[in-house]
Amino acid sequence: MLAGEAPLAHRRAGRLGSGPALGPSSTDMLDRTELAAWLRLTECLGPGAARRLLAMAGSPQAVFELPAAALDQALPPKQRAAFNRPPEHLEELIAKAAAWLTEPGHDLLALGDADYPPRLLATADPPLLLWLQGRRELLNVPSLAIVGSRNPTAQGGDNARAFAKALARAGYAIVSGLALGIDAAAHEGALDAEGATIAVVGTGLDQVYPPRNKKLAARLLAGGGLIVSEYALGMPVLPANFPKRNRIIAGLTQGCLVVEAAVQSGSLITARQAVEAGREVFAIPGSIHSPQARGCHALIRQGAKLVESAEDVLEELPPLGRPVVAAVEDAEVPHEQQALLGAMGFDPVSMEALMARSGWPAAELSAALLELELDGEVARLAGQLFQRRKRG
């Protein structure tokens, strides 16, 4: 139920999509009529105004039958004018949506549906519509968000994959935003574990952004995952939409793990929205010299739980009865290389500093670092720096 509002009178046990084409039968025509009403409502008004009208009328169709006096009272003049003018592209959008919904695995879940995710419904700003591609039942399984920088360190990417793999094996669906960096690594980790993963995106589902993640999106769907958007088909890439979608990531989940984040980042927006929704927030600490760690350190100072393993996350959540695989393990390397890794520590380090710590000559050190890099034990960073990778 929406906070502070009456329940919607119209609660459908079914939903649009994943069924017969929206054709000429009376039932299907009703579905198409309802689809048209939802699309007109969401295209004309913002979610707050639309929810006010839905609370008054009970269904999107009934909204357009409200008396003028009620509309004048509920909407300020600019919104009232927008409500009176259907968008020019509305008929095209309705036809496009109706065709899209006939495809296997395509769904449209409305706020009034009986199976709208309860966790998301209980948040302050639940989306009016959820466009879905994939396994819609994942919306109601236990889930955790993993978010972070689009430009992570090598260690950050490794951590995101390892934590996602361990948490997916423990029975949680991994929710993230299909962005580059930590988001992509989180989805990959869940898929590597043959677990469930959900991507919440900031565009219409007829496109994938960023384009570099098209293969990942295809792998996610092939692996039984789900892609979710509140935006209608054709919605382009708009910067303002991505921070807004973060509330859905937070709202669907039981907790949010931030792997790496700058102080000013979308990941911290997600964490704040998780706190506002009453979810657990976790953060992985990093180097005091790394800008990508400062957001996590800020969260920890504000009360987020510092975590070093998947067990640290799971002990704050109800047990699901599945085994946990350690998120991060030390790789086995020869003794000589292990000594060099010990000299590196886990902060980025220059060649000169490492020579001073280890006592190795430049040529021998360079060869050893190259071998460790090829083995995936060390990452080469910008500025001629090197960083140890702790792999899981």
Give a structural overview.
With 392 residues, the protein is α/β, with parallel strands linked by helices. It has three domains: 16-103, no CATH class; 137-314, Rossmann fold; 335-388, Winged helix-like DNA-binding domain superfamily/Winged helix DNA-binding domain (Arc Repressor Mutant, subunit A). The chain is 43% helix and 13% strand. The protein is built from 17 helices and 13 strands. A ten-stranded mixed beta sheet has the order 1-2-3-7-6-5-4-8-9-10, with helices on both faces. Strands 11-13-12 form a three-stranded antiparallel beta sheet. The protein is elongated, with a radius of gyration of 24 Å.
Structural class: alpha/beta
Q: How are strands sequenced across the largest beta sheet?
A: 1-2-3-7-6-5-4-8-9-10
Annotation field: number of helices: 17
- Please indicate the count of domains: 3
Largest sheet: 10 strands, mixed
Calculate Rg over CA atoms: 24 Å
What's the total number of strands?
13
Indicate the proportion of strand residues.
5-15%
Give the CATH level 1 class of the largest domain.
Answer: Alpha Beta
Shape: elongated
User: What string gives the helices and strands in order?
Assistant: EHHHHHHEHEEHEHEHEHEHEHEHHEHHEE
DSSP helix fraction: 40-55%
CATH topology of the largest domain: Rossmann fold
* Uncertain parts: 1-30, 322-331
Any idea what the CATH architecture of the largest domain is? 3-Layer(aba) Sandwich
Distance between the first and last residues' Cα: 42 Å
Mean pLDDT across residues: 85
